[in-house]
């Protein structure tokens, strides 16, 4: 082997003891192990050996390790010719070569054979998408299931470099995860071993990013349910939550219900996870709407622009349907229900009929709630945004708290006053808004007028008191004038006092809320509790004296 193997030649040259010395070679780090060394030795001796897609990468790495680089190219040249003509010409053979590289790391990456195999796979996939050679057209997705997550990630990266369509990335990722995690997805509640947990985490880590391709919501929800059930890392679960939030407008209530249920699929358990998804979606929509419209972050979060989009309304409807589904859970606390239903703001819903249905289902499933708890449940909806049929049902619903029923009845009364009846929902809502605004403005104006009038009356009273003091002072100065003067002064003082008392009484009567109105107490007839007789209570005659 010395003429064709530099590694062996160096070992022999370094040996001591003459030609009869024994040479020991350390081949523990040889890529490919004993099989690769056997074929390398056969090549050195000129014997026949077979190069296949399963050992081509190992022979190439072994040739580099043994330094088999003679002038004619040696073993490495023969392997390169095989890869170019056979090994990387078809998709199945390229997948086999890449899979064989998984046990040859890092030598396969240093020689570039792993990357070349991934590039060949990406090229064959793109050609197959453009010009299908088999049926069904996506047969190639099943070939990728043989790869490890690290090798699959190399293929995805190669597809991105070739600018493959997002649909290609989605098909590859979903098929790979479905096939690789078939056992885990089929029986997620029993998959509690560390092997399954590590497998799920590794698969999620190599999925294409949301910027490259948006994976189906149903697939992501199933994957998130499995991750939460088997106790995957917080990073993995958060990554899946953000992925679901990116396509939440495509999800159904059943998809989110899959996430909310426990591993056995019998009880609602993961409400916080669903709420995190909805919150991430709302923040994402608000941020994108704020950037598109040139608004500030605060305005986009509080304004209705981001909350009135089609995606937001779709998600709000999905959340309402999900709330109605989980409302039947007897162990579901009010805080969980309110937190889920309130994750999407009230303004995002054009109508609250679906939300009212969820509230009604929850109240029906929890009949022991008191009035305060019922009001807390109903706080997520606005009775004034119900349709006419919804308000009609709510006004007759005995399960609702009194406040919600009165709100619905009050809105119908406003609509009747405005002459819209029950047909024009938008007009009634606008009329309600105009009436409320005009009522508030009128109340403010009336309050301002009352305050101004009261201030004027107080100023007039102060002036009258000042004049009275001046008059009394003048009368005191003329005390010693004589009987007639004293009589005149006393009469004048009595008249002035009566005039002042009348003025003060008139002023105070305007401030008396119980004077001769709806608030006046009726004491005309009082029943004696002991005898049961009716006694007429005559009002007392009060006499005002200034003497």
UniProtKB/TrEMBL annotation:
PROSITE patterns: NPH3. Keywords: Ubl conjugation pathway. Residues 138-415 form the NPH3 domain. The keyword Magnesium does not apply. One of its GO terms (biological process) is protein ubiquitination. The keyword Hydrolase does not apply. Belongs to the NPH3 family. This is NPH3 domain-containing protein. It comes from Oryza meyeriana var. granulata.
